[in-house]
Amino acid sequence: MLGLETASGSVEAITTIGLVLVEAVVLYVGYGALSSLVGQTVLDAVGGE
Amino acid sequence: MDILGLTPMMVGIFVGFGLLIGILFGFFGMGGSFLVTPALLVMGYPSTVAVGSGLAFVFGTSVIGALRHRDHGQVDYKLALIMTVAMTIGIEGGKSVVFFLDSTGMADLIISISYVGLLAVVGLFTLRDAWGSKGTDSTGRDLADRVQSLHIPPMVTLRGDVRVSGTIIFAVGLVIGVLSGFLGVGGGFLLMPAMMYGLGVPAAVAVGTDILQITISGGFGAFRYAQSGSVALPVVGALLAGSALGARIGAGATQLVEEDAIKGYFAAMLLAGSVAVAAKELGAAYGIEILNTVSIALIFGAAVLVSGAVVLAAVCRLRNDSVGMWCRLTTS
């Protein structure tokens, strides 16, 4: 029983960490694409050009 | 309508707070992440969830940092390996202490007091550095020379021709690991000064090794807390969504603004964090509700102030404005 509980806790923990990892990679790629698309425009606008 | 158990307003607050922390992380290369645990504590999350979620957030942030640094990050794998083993053992020790204290009902108080002390010490150290105290560099150098002169076997040679005792590296990693597991911090703001000032590792190698190390130890720490269900995933997800964007803004600002110009604000933020946790504890102990409000205002206010100063300084540089009232404020 105890072993089963620990195993399910570990599976849940791996899922949790996996989700954080996937979100981090998706955000990195997503924001990277966004900044290469509109980054320069935003910088120009902020710089008053 | 709730989003994964959080109200839209709470999601907005966490994304916004993550954005501020991301700016700080991207600009200073450290700091900010250790504001998450005290912020969750003052918002009323149990200490185990605050620490576990803090570690999960640190893991996610450092993955993003590692991805960004992977091309030009210098890493000493020998140093990273010793530190990782030592910190992993240390985190286990720190976590056991948290769960033991939790069972006695004293975890919140002791973790809060430790935060007050640690943030105050690091804050005062940074403030002294910001004010240009002359002895800082030589003191750091002296300490590293003294550590390197201790020939406790096995001796290891690190990048930058640094020869230092493996036993000392292990001991330093163990202590930082205990603090990391105990307080829910990635250890970056302790590891960086320890590697640079304590072991004499060159700054570039310290940064690269630090990020790899934090990714591994943060991931392991978060895993251990997640096993007991002590990671609030929606909170971590919302914080990460903000911090990933903030980290890009902060990293971009480093191309425009010198770190020394903002260091004083950073030190003030650490000290404000320390006062905030102290105020929350006093408020809880004596039933003074207003102190809890003061505490929340201090933590969020300090993060807003420092990340605002970073962004404002960058905007001033982009506009070549050094005489405007706001622009003069950021460099004073």
UniProtKB/TrEMBL annotation, chain A:
Pfam families: DUF7512
Source organism, top-level taxon: Archaea
Protein name listed in UniProt: Uncharacterized protein
InterPro entries linked to this entry: DUF7512 (IPR055934)
Organism: Halogeometricum salsisoli
UniProtKB/TrEMBL annotation, chain B:
Top-rank taxon: Archaea
InterPro entries per the UniProt record, alphabetical: TM_pro_TauE-like
Keyword Zinc: no
Cellular compartments annotated: Cell membrane; Membrane
Keyword presence, Nuclease: no
UniProt entry keywords in alphabetical sequence: Cell membrane, Membrane, Transmembrane, Transmembrane helix
Recorded GO CC terms: plasma membrane
Transmembrane feature ranges: 12-36, 48-67, 79-101, 107-127, 168-192, 231-253, 265-288, 294-316
Membrane topology, from the record: Multi-pass membrane protein
UniProt family annotation: Belongs to the 4-toluene sulfonate uptake permease (TSUP) (TC 2.A.102) family.
The name this protein goes by in its record: Probable membrane transporter protein
Organism per entry: Halogeometricum pallidum JCM 14848
Taxonomic placement: Archaea, Methanobacteriati, Methanobacteriota, Stenosarchaea group, Halobacteria
